[in-house]
Amino acid sequence: MSRQMTRRGFLRTGAASAVLASAGAIGMTGCGAQREELTGEAKRTATLCNGCSNECGLWVNTVGGKVHTLEGNPDNPKSGGRMCGRGHGFAQMTYSADRLTQPMKRMENGDFEPISWDDAYKEIGEKLTSILAEYGPEAFAFIRDPRPNINFYGPRFAAALGSANIYTHAAACNLSLQSAYRHTIGGGFSADLANAKMVMFIGRSYADGITPADMKLFANVAVEGDCKIVIVDPRYNNSAHMADQWVPIVPGTDLALLLAMSHVLIEEELYDAKFVKEHVLGFYAFKKEVESFTPEWASEICGVDAEVIATLAREMAEAAPAAVVEPSWRAAFGCAHANSFMTGRAVAAFNALLGNYGQEGGALITSSPSIGALPADKFPTPPAAQHVRVGNEEFPLAVQGFGTNLAVLKAALDGTMKAVFFYQSNAAKGYANPAVWEEGLSKVDLVVSIDVQMSETAMLADYVLPECSYLERLEAVYTLGGKKHMVAIRDKAIDVVHPETRPADQIFRELSAACGVGEYFDFTAEELVEAQLATLGLTIDELREKGIVELPTSDFEYGKVPQFNTPSGKVELFSVTIGRAGLSPVITWEDRKVHPEEGEFYFVGGKQSIQSHTMTTSIESLMDISKTYDLERLWMNASDAARLGIAEGETVEMSSSEYTDTIAVHVTERLMPGVSMLPRTTAVRRPTFRRATVLAYARPTSFPSTWSREWGRP
Amino acid sequence: MERSGQSGRDQLAGQLRTTIVPTIGSHMLDIAGILLSRATEVEYACAMQACLPRIDEELGVHDALARTVPPSYDEYRHFFNRVLTPGIPGSLPPVESLFEDWGGHRAGLQHGQGFYLGRSAQHVQEVCDSLEIEVPEAYKAVPDHLLLLLELNEFLCDHAPADQAHLFAEEHFGWLSDYLDALGARMENEDDEALASAASFYCNFVDLVRRVVLDEWGENDVREVAQSA
Ligand code: SF4
Questions:
Q1: ipTM above 0.85, yes or no
Q2: pLDDT digits (tens, 9 = 90+) for B57-86
Q3: Is A653 exposed, middle or buried (0-12, 13-18, 19+ CB in 10 A)?
Q4: CATH assignment of A189-364?
Q5: Measured from the CA of A85, which atom of ligand 1 is nearest?
């Protein structure tokens, strides 16, 4: 219609007036009632939640192509048929106003303007290839939140461009701990909670960092079982309600506790001498080292009564091998302190003294299923990069699969990193020291962020490429290791809501073509999944029907001591590799880097069970829970509050070397004196973000806080 | 439509409704096309020069909008980038679904406000489908974008029975009050002057649209608006 064209012609009305003329009405009356019901075909699709890295198995129920409800897949060991509240809330992101709906380019004045996919690819491709030509592939880095799909596409993309610089967010999470386990017992382990007689959790709370099946198991064991559960944490966390004993401890001194417990086992000959003889390297060096680490010595440092320390050690020995120090994750010693790496080593060592590896109720080292080699004609493997990954020399102990993203930041700050791509990872707010990341990224010539919603990192990017949400895409298959091997699918439950958003497989296919390496991505997600499953003897239809399928490849057996993937094949309490990296080869005491001065507090973080870092804070219903239950307050012990004259709910100013802000105080007995605690999804204001007022992020480490992560310092 | 406790003005407006439907006028619609989408500099300049002064004539009244010096193209573009572009933190794209409650048992997962493809979008899509009107692909997620609502409203005013056109207007333009409130809150502490001035122009425009479409103009003006249709 010409009239519309003058107004830029949005609606194409075609036969509309003729329809009206013939029908005479458009059924407008009563439309309000019609609008109350979702109508259309009902469908159920197997997928995986993306609300956190657990990626629980779900069934998505849709009506008329819209998401209606979600339910946990009972066959999935993470969900166990349930979802947590965060998972339900996060699904709302699919329809959220905060979603990115089109590719965007940052203009000189800082504004973002839409750009077509073709133009975005062309400009990114030209800039990236010219950076690679001028500075080499080592000037390009790719940082991701490591989920199965991007674990396939991200490293392949970097490798296709000749770069070895592929990283995860782990240096802001649990890299110290994971690297410690890597070099002490060959990799991670899990606690066999279901069969244990005693479990010690250090800084980890299943009731706060929820995995539905683990939470259910924990509650069953804690409430009905005969397992003694000990929570070591400066905070009486939400798991402590169900535990047998709460052991408040000075933040960052868990190492002292572990060394002293080891001392007791060795001094009183309560350790498993047979296991130590056969499977431990460096026992005598360790024994010598811990000689002076008595419970009395540790008590002075960690604030736990010496008798409590000795009793805990004896009780663990009594329950062994069905006793275990749980591996923890991030909060206590994931990477928070200068001694986090050593603390992880001490956890692995203490478990070795208990002789619990591979034993029922002990520490389980299990394997994961592997996808076989894909047909080379369709899925050619890019050649290996010809340079050493930036950071590998400086941080040689980091788990190879994770890398150290701090090395990227350092290279950005010194001007040698020229292009950085982020995939759903918010370094500029979710890691540490936002101001430093902002400064670093401002020096990078090309920053690209692929994400579903805008983040602080995307706000610093030159190009933002919008991915569709997890409910709108099919992804590479997800393998689950453990006592059982399984493979699960994240399938597309609905069509894309926003037509200008695309799934990762399409983005990498098109982007790689624009960068001149399209031959490594010349396949669809469906073709990839089919090829991956073919190597496991499965079809995509089988997996779609069940969501998750068990594989016959696990060789786990209780009672069998696992292979330790260390240079000696043993638990290494003395490590040449670690010694060569400049750290103490034997497990020993190291202090945390900073202690509070007069008038200062230790500062720790705690998890809100309904938030996953900055990722979920745009979900209004989840933020409502945070606000309704006042989960954003700064915790302070009642005696400290009384001394300072601070009342419950009062607003105080808190300050560190990095940041100052005001916040309401929660006065409580659930926190040891001298410590302050802030839920991790709180603390730094995100004023321009829609849902968030006071929220988002602290890197609660020490107070004053520091950005260095000395888990593998040179 | 049943009404209770009608004022004289409502009654008069009601009578007018039965015979003549108010329309927002082609020049306002032209400006809407410019303000609610990414116009080029030339399109923007033409609209401001040619159309803005004629709003007064169309309405037969003087409105704040017609007396406002419009923001420059760059200022308006900056405003569009920051405030009307989806996905930008703090942005408020003019989409009805985002300001209605998904609520009710149909909603399943979604509760509260701030979601695309709500009931209003579904309804607009149904109306378009029934009229064999094609919603452009780029607006697939936002059939209830203000621009499309205005287009559809105009079309219905021209072609549909008056009561149905009115019902559509009443159902799909009430959210603009909330929208204006949200814009007001968004701009409250804005220290970017260019942004604030473009926002004020935009708000005046949206408010004018709201009042005209919802027939909140005042007795005489309603008549004039109606007569001009
Ligand atoms: S734990 Fe909750 S948020 Fe995380 S994947 Fe499972 S259901 Fe989703």
A1: yes
A2: 766 656 667 677 789 999 999 999 999 999
A3: exposed
A4: 3.40.228.10
A5: 2
